[in-house]
Automatic annotation (TrEMBL):
Gene3D superfamilies found in the cross-reference section: 3.40.50.2020
Protein name: Orotate phosphoribosyltransferase
Residues annotated as domain Phosphoribosyltransferase: 113-179
Functional description taken from the UniProt entry: Catalyzes the transfer of a ribosyl phosphate group from 5-phosphoribose 1-diphosphate to orotate, leading to the formation of orotidine monophosphate (OMP).
Family matches, as InterPro entries: OPRT (IPR023031), Or_phspho_trans_dom (IPR004467), PRTase-like (IPR029057), PRTase_dom (IPR000836)
GO MF entry, a single one: orotate phosphoribosyltransferase activity
Organism from which the protein derives: Hassallia byssoidea VB512170
Protein residues bound to 5-phospho-alpha-D-ribose 1-diphosphate: R114, K115, K118, H120, E141, D142, V143, V144, T145, T146, G147, R148, S149
Subunit structure: Homodimer.
Cofactors demanded by this protein: Mg(2+)
Residues reported in the UniProt entry to bind orotate: T145, R173
CDD domains: PRTases_typeI
EC number(s) given by UniProt: 2.4.2.10
Catalytic activity: orotidine 5'-phosphate + diphosphate = orotate + 5-phospho-alpha-D-ribose 1-diphosphate
Amino acid sequence: MNYQAETFTQSELWASTADFNILHQQLLNLFCRLAYQEGDFILSSGQASSYYINGKQVTLNPQGALAIGRILLSRLPEDTQAVAGLTLGADPIVTAVSVVSAYENRPIPALIIRKEAKGHGTKAYIEGPTLPENSTVVVLEDVVTTGRSAMKAVERLRDAGYTVTKVISLIDRLQGGAEFYQSVGLKFEAVFTIEDIQQRYQQLTD
């Protein structure tokens, strides 16, 4: 789907003005309209799937990014000192949360975790401000399947001396990710499950 720049009326700027119930519903609609596809796909985990969710169609959408920033910020524990995620899928998510946090007078920096160490300069895995040792960081993800991708971010952050006890995903595919996180002692929550997406998708396409 090609994106065309739009001019919104005040009533259409729901991402900045809506209460959280409306925000949640409108974000679900965006995922159904822009990100969810049915067909034959191979996931990054190597699994075959009858559907695919291209989260970046929503996380890089202006309304979607703002809605995501507001929703995820509201779900962060009070002691959160930073948000982080594995590049590339989490980049716009952690950025959105960090920007919204500044507007809410609760500034929370964002960290981006490389899949491979930078090949020059400091050769770091983690991009972003250097935080005090044992700072509490929440890992954010767009779509969780097995949970292994976000776990790479957790491990890099812990290796750097940070404390990570929670992962939040926009969508849980219900394919073992939640159980995996529980098995390694991480708290996990998702804004939507794949059942939420598919049920709403059917309503919108019927």
